[in-house]
Write a structure and sequence with these properties.
Number of strands: 0
Radius of gyration: 18 Å
Oligomer: single chain
Strand content: under 5%
Transmembrane segments: 12-29
Number of helices: 3
Order of helices and strands: HHH
Shape: elongated
Keywords: Membrane, Transmembrane, Transmembrane helix
Largest sheet: none
Length: 58
């Protein structure tokens, strides 16, 4: 029973890691963004930085 649970948790971890690598790999290869730029887009940091830069330019 305990071994089954460890096996399931390992499978879930592998799936999550593969999903994260696929997400960042897509942005890196298709859109030419670095992983940090993809995280910034995901968290909204990019939009805040763009708005701040625009206010500073005016």
């Amino acid at each position: 029973m305990a071994m089954e649970r460890v096996s399931q948790m390992r499978a879930i971890a592998i799936i999550l890691i593969a999903a994260a690598l696929g997400y960042f790999g897509y942005y890196y290869t298709v859109e030419g963004r670095s992983p940090s730029a993809a995280i910034g887009e995901l968290t909204g940091e990019t939009a805040r930085a763009e708005a701040e830069a625009q206010r500073a330019a005016v």
